[in-house]
Amino acid sequence: MTTVTPYRSKRKSGSDGFGRLLRAEWTKFRTVRGWVIAVALAAAAAFGISVFLASNGHISCSPGPCSINGQPPVTGPGGLPVNDAFYFVHQTLDGNSSITARVTALTSAPALGGFQGPSATGLQPWAKTGVILKASMAQGSAYAAIMVTASHGVRMQYNYTHDIAGPPGAASAASPRWLRLTRSGDTVTGYESGNGTHWIKVGTATLAGFPRAVQAGLFTASPDAAQQGQTRLFTAATGVLDHVSLPGGAALRAKGYEFPAQGFQFFGREQRSGEFTEKAGTFAVTGSGDIGPYQVPSDKTADSLLGMIVGLIVVIAVAAPFITAEYRRGIIHTTLAVSPRRGRVLAAKAIVIGLVSFVAGLAAAAIALPLAEKLLQSNYYRPPWFMTAAGLTSGTGLRIVLGTGALFAITAILAVGLGTIVRRSAVAITMAIAVIVLPELLEVSLPQSPAQWLQEFTPAAAFGIHSSIPRYPQVACYAVKGCYPLPPWAGLGVFALYAAAALALGFLLLRRRDA
Amino acid sequence: MTLAEAVHAEWTKLRTAPGNCWLLLAAAALTITVSAAVDAAAGCSLSVSCQPDVARLSVTGIWAGQAVVAVLAVLVISDEYSTGMIRTTLAAIPRRTTVLAAKAAVLGGVVLCSGTVGVAGSILAGRLILPGRGYTVAHGYVPLSLADGPTLRAAGGSVLYLTLIALLGLGAATALRNSAAAIAGALGLLYVFPLFAHVTSDPTWHRRYEQIGPMTAGLAIQATKNLGQLPIAPWSGLGVLAAWAAGAMIAGWLVLQVRDA
Question: What is the tens place of the pLDDT at every residue in A207-261?
């Protein structure tokens, strides 16, 4: 009996490594001329439209430097742009001293006489009333204040950017809040008490060069309400304060003064009014505005970079067919015969199209960002008042450029995932575009609270990667595209979760279904 | 073959192709769902002011529904190219104008039906949801009713809007033949103008985007309040969309005439 050995090739069998799979997918991509052209077009369109958006529209600043609401911009200590608008009931206080007051109410107030523009009713979360020590009656001068806010408890704030949280809770007649500031040299310390005898220290402020004679008194401020789009509405609040005492139990012999509001506004302009009344030591102080860092009213850089969305749409139109075309042409049978491990095929596709899109997005943003900033500045949107320049080499600039690359890559992976699920390019493309564009569209059209929800939980969060303006939590934010609740990379992470979910579902279906 | 027979053939194709029925249902369902969600989210209280135009608010779902309509419109022609069915179609009906006209008529008809369901459902949802979200008679908001002239125009105009979107998609897909390019192009054209308008602070450009964009201009038909402040009057806005749709259809017709299938 003879044994027949079956023929075996002497050649080593080729490796079926992942590297080969990647190479195969890369070959598929690069040999379809339409796809290569489309990805180049995606980068070009993203760049071109971003720059175009940056170029149209400007602030008129002739003659002379740009003003905000017809007034020269207010600068705080250190040259920082600030808001300094509130109603101040004040008197001069000399040397080391203290001021104490009891807050029994903080309520919203109607617009006062002379007011012309649109107004909002209701108490703003950051409406505030309390006691303040201010270096002078000039706007932008150094100050330290302790206050009760509508929904953020007791705060000690000083020199515009500093904010220290005190005990939570609002003030009412049933549970009044006692506030005290004591000054010793350059140091101001804030205290809070529930009963006027037992005091808790909230914080200490060191104000360099705080003059000997300062203005001390009571104040109320109520920031603008953010409305749909870029509209801002005037608001006013009334604080009721009593047991006002100066050192030695002296009474406040005060005058009222209104620090006028300023703020750049696109649609309409309001004027504000404040007033105070005193009856047997009880002061009712009505004011509007805010004391704090000036929040740039719109994120011009991020607004311009919304042009990237055109690039994303084109990337989707390539990435979804990257898988669906295989189904339409039947190449999927060959692909899966060559590489039966289906998960690896999908992974290779996602990596190839993701990397290609990453490069497209990176290139588009790297050229668009400096050019857009230059154009914005030549149109008088200049830092620090109307925009914050990021620059390519700054941390923000790098984040915007790398983040745009990642945004393109995640978009492509989402489209591949959806394409694997539905297997039809038109449906997959529509789903991907809807997932990205619709939350963005609803976000700019809805009032601020649902808009912020969209920016936190939907793919719209990803566009926070383009934010270029600093965000201060103690200041109400008005810029539609500047107030993302999540940090930039976390927002991109939310979007990545959506893409990962689509890819995972695609993977499950690819394994379970016949091709 | 007469136009009536061509329409009958197209109707048979549309009716029997898998998925089309689901797309029509999805268009209506998505319109109603998104409208209801926006109604619920746009509630007003003492600190959040009410949206002035409730009729417009209650049919916001069209923003999502139109995407499904566009998919259907693109698939009606591009599926024929991808499967090769177009050759059979053109062999049966050699007059290409008749083919395109029949497709447009059938597509327009079914979208008209689906759109009517979606819009009527959205108005009904608004009528039921909005009074509970602060839009009460006490605040000066009467419940939505189609007996009200402007509301009827907003509702009827929205249905026409969806029909025109379908023609825009059909024209783009006939001109481009490639379903990916056609759907991305059509949706891009619809969605980017309102986004750009929102981020453009310059009033001239803001207005310009809203007047040119097929979606921004076309949806002016939904406005029932402050008509004087609209960037474009309701019916002229729908006219702008009709011009876009006509442009796409003419381009599609030319390509169909000139190119081999």
Answer: 988 999 999 999 999 887 765 545 567 788 999 999 998 887 777 777 778 777 6
| Closest residue by Cα to residue A381 from A46, A33, A79, A60 | A60
**Across the interface, which of B78, B187, B201 has its CB nearest the CB of A430?**
B187
B54 vs B122: CA distance, rounded Å: 11
**Residues sharing a CB contact under 8 Å with residue A102, sequence separation 6 or more, in sequence order:** A176, A177, A178, A179, A196, A241, A242, A243, A244
Residue B52: closest CA among chain A residues belongs to which residue?
Answer: A228
Residue range A14-24: average pLDDT?
82
B38 touches chain A (CB under 8 A): yes
For residue A339, the distance in angstroms to the closest alpha carbon of chain B comes to: 26
d(CA A159, CA A465): 29
Six-digit token string for A42: 């995606």
CB pairs under 8 A between A and B: 133
Half-sphere exposure of B253 (CA within 13 A, CB side): 16
Interface touch B68/A430, C-beta < 8 Å? yes
State residue A266's pLDDT score. 30
Residues 231-270 of A with CB under 8 A from B: 233, 266
Distance from A2 to chain B by nearest Cα, in Å?
55
Residue of A320, A430, A481 lying closest to B70 (CB–CB): A430
Q: Is B188 on the interface with A (CB under 8 A)?
A: yes
pLDDT digits (tens, 9 = 90+) for A138-187: 889 999 999 999 999 999 999 998 999 999 988 998 999 999 999 999 99
Confidence of residue A116 (pLDDT cuts 50, 70, 90): very low
Contacts of A306 in chain B (CB under 8 A): 195-196, 199
CB within 8 Å: B198 and A445: yes
Q: Pairing state of beta strands A128-134 and A255-259?
A: unpaired
Q: Any idea where the domains of chain B sit in the sequence?
A: 3-34+55-121+145-258
**Percentage of chain A modeled with pLDDT above 70:** 88
**Per the CB < 8 Å rule, is B201 touching A441?**
no
SS3 A98: strand
B22, closest residue in chain A (CA to CA) = A427
Q: What residues does A154 pair with on adjacent strands?
A: A148
What is the CATH T-level fold of the domain A77-293, as seen in this structure?
Jelly Rolls (2.60.120)
What average pLDDT does the segment A310-324 reach?
Answer: 96
How many whole angstroms separate alpha carbon B188 and alpha carbon B197?
14
Residues 101-120 of B with CB under 8 A from A: none
Residues A266 and B250: their CA atoms lie apart, in Å, by: 40
Six-digit token string for A345 = 């095929």
Chain B residues inside the 8 Å CB shell of A425: 179-180, 183
Length of chain B: 261
Domain boundaries, given as residue ranges, for chain A: 18-58+299-512, 77-293
Q: Which residues of chain B have pLDDT under 50?
A: none
| ipTM > 0.95 for the complex | no
Answer whether 0.80 is exceeded by the pTM. Answer: yes
Over chain A, what is the mean pLDDT?
A: 86
For B158, counting Cβ atoms within 10 Å of its Cβ (0-12 exposed, 13-18 middle, 19+ buried), the class is buried
Read off φ and ψ for residue A105, nearest 5 degrees. -165, 150
Identify the bridge partners of residue A106 per DSSP, sorted by sequence position. A239
Distance CA B48, CA A135 (A): 36
Closest listed residue to residue A122, CA positions, set B136, B44, B138: B44
